[in-house]
Amino acid sequence: MKLKDLVNLLKNATEQGASKALLQSGQLQGQLSKAEAYRLFGRGNVDRWISEKLIGPIHSERSSRKYLDRKKLEAIAASSNRITYLPVAER
Description:
This protein is mainly alpha-helical. Helices cover 55% and strands 9% of the residues. The longest helix has 23 residues.
């Protein structure tokens, strides 16, 4: 294993552990509104992920609002690549 691979593994483990601890303590919500997702991940990215059906809205039991799952968004953002992007001429 190369040093770079080890650094990436430790970084990912640290980020996942911190988010799990924050979710369990209630400091971080498990669901995000679309506006919050836009702010965190960018409007273009979130809209593209929704149009590609990588993520979809979740209906909240407490209200009629729709939310997006934070864990799924973070996983998609971590694995997102630019293969699905279209050049401006092809849009």
